[in-house]
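The instructor's notes for this session suggest beginning with a concrete chain rather than abstract definitions. Hand out the sequence below and ask the class to guess, before any prediction is shown, which regions might be ordered.
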Amino acid sequence: MSSTVAPAGTLSFPRLKSPGVRRFVYGVAGLLVMLVIWQIGTLLLHLDPGTRTFTTFGPIPTFEAFPVLWEEGKIQSAVAASGYRLAVGLFIAIAIGVPIGILMGRSKKFRELSNSPFQFLRMISPLSWMPLAVIVYTQWDQAIIFLIAIASIWPVAFATAAGLAKVDPAWFKVARNLGARPMHMLTRVILPAIAFDVFTGIRLALGVAWIVLVPAELLGVTSGLGYAIKDARETLSYNHLTAMVLVIGAIGYLLDSVCVQLIKRYSWHYSGQ
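After discussion, reveal the predicted structure:
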């Protein structure tokens, strides 16, 4: 057996052949680079007497704030409140968006009638519905759930319609010839065929909903991740503020990763690369 020897004076790094190990190592390296840049920015703030007060935005004070926030229960309560609003809003968006998408994909007449109104509604900023939501709903929770739902429904609906448009029409003919009823057509043909696209739409909807959730919680409510950031800002607890920002990023990343795994699970062309 022959072995390759690195030339003298050069550094040799082991090749990461496993895709999983490679993704993990690169992911950790990327986070470390971000941490170094964050620390450099904190040092620059410290050098300027006018911004020295804001050095508690730095990584060390931020990580020191996590045990305090956890012991006080602020992280748990904020995540629970925001998680409830997000889950209900997304459930409503999926429950409405998937049927609408199926109708758009199956009925040409419905698609032509609804395309312009749906595109118009989709382009309205979700937060611009806030004044109307506050008037219609008596509770802030209901208003925030409405904003999440109205923002999330369109990615789900259009992704579902696009997925159904790719399904071979011959499948429906075969299913009808075999005696499939409408419910069988839905559960045995349509939903399995468009699962990949539905989960892709849910992933997009989740990103939109997560963006809408935090600014919506800056107004009126006294719980949730957005409120926790607002409270930390008003009390000048900058390390608590950045800690909650990291919590938002970590939860969003985790939820997105779950959606990615579901997409891979239902992708017919996924090869594991």
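Then share the key points. The chain has two domains: 19-57, 72-265. The mean pLDDT is 84.
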